[in-house]
C-alpha cells in the first residue's frame, strides 16, 4: 500500500512538472525540462506545450535552444513541495510533433541570436527556434496556432496570425474534367457538355459543375446557349 502511494505520487509529480516549471513565467517563456535534457517547454496560460529537440540534440539552458553540445542542468524547480500534491491532469503538458532542423540556406535566423524565436512567414501552424546549426521548425500542437504578436502557440480561435496565407479556391481534381472546365468561371457560366450533345453544364461559381440534359428531341445549341431542336444543332 505504501509503495502504491509512492508510485501514485511519482506519477502526479511527472505530470505536474510542466506546470510547475512555468509557474510565474511570462507566456512564451521557453524552459528546459528538469527530467529530460532533450525536452523543453513553452509556457503559456493553461497547459504548457512540451517540445523535443531532434535526435542527438539537447536543450541548452544557456542559449535556450537545441544544440549538439548543450549545457543541460536541473532547472530552478522547487521539488520539495510537489510530490504530495494530488495529480492534476489538466496541467500535464500538451505534446507536439517532432521538431525538424531546416537544412540548406535559410535566411530566417540570419542575424538572430541563438535561442531567438521566429514566426513562420508562410503560415501559423509552426514557428522556428534559431539554433547554432540553423533554424529548427517546431509545430504548434493540434488545435493551436502560433501567435506572431505574443510569440507562442495558443488556441487557434484566439491567435492573431500575421502570416495566414490568403484562402485559395480549391484546386480542381485532375480526374474531374467538368470541374476543371468550371475552374475560375463565374456562377451561371454555361457550356456544352464536351462528350454528349444532349447535355450541357452550368458552373456554380465555386469551381463546381452541374450537368443538365436537354428535353427529348432537343440538344444543346452552343451558339444560342439553349436546348434547341436537334435539326438546328451541329453535333
Ligand atoms: C527524452 O525525450 C526524448 C524526446 O521526447 C525521448 O525520445 C526520450 O526517450 C526521453 N528520455 C527519457 C530518458 O525519458
Automatic annotation (TrEMBL):
<dbReference type="InterPro" id="IPR002557">
    <property type="entry name" value="Chitin-bd_dom"/>
</dbReference>
<keyword id="KW-0147">Chitin-binding</keyword>
<dbReference type="Pfam" id="PF01607">
    <property type="entry name" value="CBM_14"/>
</dbReference>
<dbReference type="InterPro" id="IPR036508">
    <property type="entry name" value="Chitin-bd_dom_sf"/>
</dbReference>
<feature type="domain" description="Chitin-binding type-2">
    <location>
        <begin position="19"/>
        <end position="74"/>
    </location>
</feature>
<feature type="domain" description="Chitin-binding type-2">
    <location>
        <begin position="106"/>
        <end position="163"/>
    </location>
</feature>
<feature type="domain" description="Chitin-binding type-2">
    <location>
        <begin position="179"/>
        <end position="235"/>
    </location>
</feature>
<keyword id="KW-1015">Disulfide bond</keyword>
<feature type="signal peptide">
    <location>
        <begin position="1"/>
        <end position="18"/>
    </location>
</feature>
<keyword id="KW-0325">Glycoprotein</keyword>
<dbReference type="InterPro" id="IPR051940">
    <property type="entry name" value="Chitin_bind-dev_reg"/>
</dbReference>
<protein>
    <recommendedName>
        <fullName>Chitin-binding type-2 domain-containing protein</fullName>
    </recommendedName>
</protein>
<dbReference type="GO" id="GO:0008061">
    <property type="term" value="F:chitin binding"/>
</dbReference>
<keyword id="KW-0677">Repeat</keyword>
<keyword id="KW-0732">Signal</keyword>
<dbReference type="GO" id="GO:0005576">
    <property type="term" value="C:extracellular region"/>
</dbReference>
Amino acid at each position: 500500500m505504501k509503495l502504491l502511494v509512492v508510485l501514485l505520487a511519482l506519477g502526479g509529480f511527472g505530470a505536474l512538472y510542466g506546470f510547475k516549471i512555468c509557474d510565474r513565467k511570462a507566456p512564451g517563456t521557453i524552459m528546459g525540462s528538469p527530467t529530460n535534457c532533450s525536452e523543453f517547454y513553452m509556457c503559456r496560460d493553461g497547459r504548457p506545450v512540451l517540445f523535443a529537440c531532434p535526435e542527438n540534440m539537447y536543450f541548452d539552458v544557456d542559449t535556450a535552444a537545441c544544440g549538439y553540445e548543450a549545457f543541460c542542468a536541473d532547472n530552478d524547480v522547487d521539488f520539495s513541495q510537489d510530490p504530495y500534491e494530488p495529480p492534476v491532469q489538466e496541467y500535464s503538458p500538451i505534446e507536439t510533433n517532432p521538431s525538424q532542423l531546416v537544412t540548406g540556406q535559410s535566411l530566417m535566423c540570419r542575424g538572430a541570436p541563438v535561442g531567438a524565436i521566429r514566426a513562420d512567414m508562410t503560415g501559423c501552424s509552426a514557428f522556428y527556434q534559431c539554433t547554432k546549426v540553423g533554424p529548427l521548425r517546431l509545430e504548434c500542437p493540434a488545435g493551436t496556432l502560433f501567435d506572431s504578436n505574443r510569440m507562442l502557440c495558443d488556441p487557434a480561435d484566439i491567435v492573431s496570425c500575421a502570416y495566414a496565407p490568403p484562402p485559395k479556391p480549391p484546386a480542381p481534381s485532375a480526374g474531374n474534367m467538368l470541374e476543371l472546365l468550371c475552374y475560375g468561371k463565374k456562377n451561371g457560366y454555361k457550356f456544352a457538355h464536351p462528350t454528349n450533345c444532349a447535355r450541357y453544364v452550368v458552373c456554380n461559381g465555386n469551381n463546381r459543375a452541374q450537368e443538365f440534359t436537354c428535353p427529348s428531341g432537343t440538344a444543346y445549341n452552343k451558339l444560342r446557349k439553349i436546348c434547341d431542336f436537334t435539326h438546328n444543332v451541329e453535333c
